[in-house]
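To: structure desk
From: M.T.
Subject: fold request, one chain
Message: Could you run this one when you get a chance? Sequence is below, nothing fancy, just the single chain.
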Amino acid sequence: MLDFFHITQNAKGVDIQNFLPTGGTGIDFQTWIKPRNVNWVQFFMLAGGGGGGGSIVGAASTSAGSGGGGSSAQYNVIFPAWALPDVLYLCVGAGGAGGTGTAGSAGTASYISIFPATSAVNNILGVCNAGSGGGVNSGATVGANGTPGAVSGIATAPLAALGMCAGGLLAGSITIVGQYGSSGAAASTGQSITLPTTGLVVTGGASGAGLGAVSTTGSLGGSISNPGGGLGGFTFPTIVGGLGGTATPTGGGNGSNGLAAGSKLLYFYGGAGGGSSGLAASTGSTGGNGGNGATGCGGGGGGGGFTGQTNSTGGRGGDGIIISAAW
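Reply: Done. Structure tokens follow.
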């Protein structure tokens, strides 16, 4: 359990518990015990984000950028306390690894169940699906974007009908679908990510830049930004991709790591993409690595690099989280 908001109980008597992956492999459940004397319980749940792909080196214009990982799906449900048993079992999904000259790995799913098993009949919240990894380039062909965690229907968690889902049980859906990562770039700037406007509070990862033509400098990795600017005086930050290398040469810069958008604000960014290198067959002309995704977000894709150098690495997908609040 992690004290994510630096509190376990606030002045109004709200009991807040936060759970992260335990570091085990496979399905690993933790125990949640219902606090005494509460009327309502809220669960917010994210799975792991997909890792970014890492690009394979190549000659001029033949080392494209790799794709960013997809984000987790999202749950936010309130239950009357009387409808829940005294003990629940929580499995928190982990983020996927970034690839090194390979595709990134998918994250793993999260569950909340009345019994430590993943079968649908046990789930009070259906499978919170993870994002998939970003694809790796094939020469000048760009790495594919990582796909988002898909929505789960009520059939995956019949007991979820005891609660009230944010977004409603519209068309049988009890989750918000995640966000795609961006696909890689061919001999140009990486593809950027725009913050979602669906109620989702996580993003996919941005992609890596592609290696350009002979005697050119590298290109900037993809960024993550909010074109809408401020909201009530608060401005969502932009995180930038890695700089392109120079023709002298230098390697591409690493993409920025994802972050939380504000102090104690439940809103997270994926990793930015790595920049592509400058062009020369000498040490240093490597592609930049993708940035790591924050909680539930995709990792950034790696940038293209020159033949004979090290393949770039995609950013790791962010681990999932489950937060319970009881009052």
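Reply (cont.): Residues 1-8 have pLDDT under 50 and may be disordered. Let me know if you need anything else for the meeting.
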